[in-house]
Amino acid sequence: MFRSAKNTIALAAAIVSVGGLTAACGSSSGSSGGVVNLTYMIWDSGEKPAYQASINAFEKAHPDIHVTIDVAAWAQYWAKLQTAAAGRDMPDLFWDHLAYLPELAKDGIITNIADDVKSSNVDLSQYSPKLLAQWENGSTIYGLPKDWDTIETVYNAKDLSAAGITPAQLGALSWNTTDGGSFVQALQKLTIDQNGKHPNEAGFDAKHVKQYGIALEGSTGQQDWWDFGVQNGCSLQDKQYGKWTISSTACVQAMQFEQDLMYKWHVAAPGTVTNTPNAASLPQILAQNTAAMTFDGDWDLTTYQSSLPTGGWGVATLPTGPKGSGTVYNGLSDAIYAGTKHPQQAWELEEWLGSAASEKIVTDAGTVWAAIPSLDDGFIAAWKAKGVDVSAFYTGAQGTTMGFPLTISGTAFNNVVLKDMNQVWLDQMAPQAAASDITSVSNAAVADGS
Amino acid sequence: MTTKPIGRQMSGTAIYLLLGLGGLVSIAPYLMTLNAAFKPQSTLLSTQAWTPAVPATWSNFTQLWQQYDMSGFIVHTALVAVAITVGQLVFTTLAAYAFARLEFPGREPLFWLFIAMMMVPQIVTLIPLFLIMSHLNLVDTYRALILPYVFGTPYGIFLVRQYFQTIPADLEAAARIDGAGTWTILRRIMIPLGRPILATLATITFVNTWNSLLWPLMATSSERDEVVTVGISALQGQFASQLHILLPAAAVALLPLIVIFLLFQRHIVRSIALTGLK
Prior knowledge:
The structure holds two protein chains of two kinds.
Chain A: H1 2-23, E1 31-32, E2 35-42, H2 48-61, E3 65-71, H3 74-86, E4 93-96, H4 101-106, H5 114-119, H6 129-135, E5 136-137, E6 140-141, E7 147-156, H7 157-162, H8 167-171, H9 181-190, E8 192-193, E9 209-215, H10 225-231, H11 249-263, H12 271-274, H13 282-287, E10 291-297, H14 301-307, E11 313-316, E12 327-330, E13 333-336, H15 343-353, H16 356-364, E14 369-370, H17 376-385, H18 391-398, E15 401-403, H19 410-425, H20 431-449
Parallel strand pairs in A: 2-3, 2-4, 9-10, 12-15
Antiparallel strand pairs in A: 1-2, 4-13, 5-6, 7-10, 7-11, 7-12, 7-14, 8-9
Chain B: H1 3-37, H2 41-44, H3 59-67, H4 70-100, H5 107-116, H6 122-135, H7 142-150, H8 154-166, H9 169-177, H10 182-193, H11 195-211, H12 214-219, H13 228-233, H14 243-275
Helix pairs in contact in B: 1-14, 3-14, 4-7, 4-8, 4-11, 8-11, 11-14
């Protein structure tokens, strides 16, 4: 009797303490003392300082709004966002990528800002039309363009001068599918085996290469075969949100050319060196002199700057292909959570982040190129001050470009393209077979989703 | 006659060589992390991970503290880890004792039902847990980090219950004859005798909490409650990882765990020997 009574008391005490714990927790909320708290989620801690500076300016002008920047690395960013979406408790604003935009829009998670744009008289003509078009679909617009990136050649200056090639010559190279063109000839000069021989010399040892001419690495194709593709007239899709057309001749030739660089010409690092996700990063490959040059996006500029000596690296335009020059052109925007408790304040932040004043802060810091073309000189100037001429990225953006594919089958495409292309770069799958598989799997996902 | 000891000696040497090799493989990543943490940013990517950091530099560590709230991360993590560890020790002891010794109807089914929770992968409960926290308005608070784990885990309760069952029931019966109640028995017999297993539980809980990434990542979104794993993971960008900050951060985050292990090492080894669990 006595014992069980004691147990009951203990149990009751436990319940009360649990109740107390939870009851004490009901107070946190989005606003306190008239100040609205907004959360802004981004995935690059390297870009945070510039965005914090922009946010500070915003808070000064809006003392009734407080913004917290939440950084979650790309590797966890989308998982966190999807969990938050399932819990209907998302950050008020967050960086959006074209690979995810269609699915977010379809699920009704992000806000169509078309009405706000109209009522606030936002001047859409200030943005690069190509960027703006990516975020528009019919009468909807899912975010103001905040930046852009292109892919260009990044080279090791020492290796280049050792091979007797000038940066200007590097930018003027061209390739073709028959003899490789001047691009392959230059890469042959830059590729050296352990006995100092080049791939076009007798006795070259392809198994013991000390320095490859080029290293190409990209999980989707953005930094490698898509660029060859746009230079060869390849389109990944028949239209935005349309069917995949990767098995076309122009696209397969682009893949074949990259595979040939590795296994026919022996001038590019093979898949064992560059296959994602486990390969060394491109700046690392360049810094360790595994390869003399690479194709990379401007988002990596800071890493090159910190891991190679000043003047030890530079940027040149991509080679020209059978159908001319071209690069992949992509950009981000800020999405507003459709369920935000503070839609008005969230829009004010969106409007600020997309304004020339905010984009100028971020661009002048050399963090990312602005989506407003008139500001882009600021980015070039910021990097000039650091001793690097990055204008090749700008040149690329002005020429022929290929946008990031827009599709509701993004997840299926990302999975199959990584799996198959890794096989291609290991020389274990023919480009045509990979292209057919990627096309059929991705198109099946398009058909399922619509 | 003489060949046997030599053979035995040789197999002994071989075993030690093998164990030494295994040890080296296990510890190598940590040593490389520590080594790379002292490399200047300019040589971090251009040298191999095992190239010695000469000249060594503290600049990565100073940058870590200047640019990132490393002390904050560690304080937040310690707070959460201590709260969960203390909570688990208290509640697990009570639950394990109840399941091991107290007689009440439905004890066995309840116990096995509880243990069955071990089969549910954590990832499956992630979204429901987030929903609960979201409805309670607890997202981005310490309570969201602490509440789900503070009342013990099936694993911990199983561990301690098995140990309690090995303590002779006669001891308890003798105490009862001397007039001791349940609380006295728990306080003066079970807890002192259960010290090795409780130390093990404390270590496992502390280490797991310190290392846990997924839940804190989902449950928090501001720096005021950001824990060390989340802080470190944020340093990995989509493309450009800030390795020169990330590696010293990982090295610093490891230190408290090493201290904990050294403090409780004796208990951990003993409890593994006693329960056959690990």
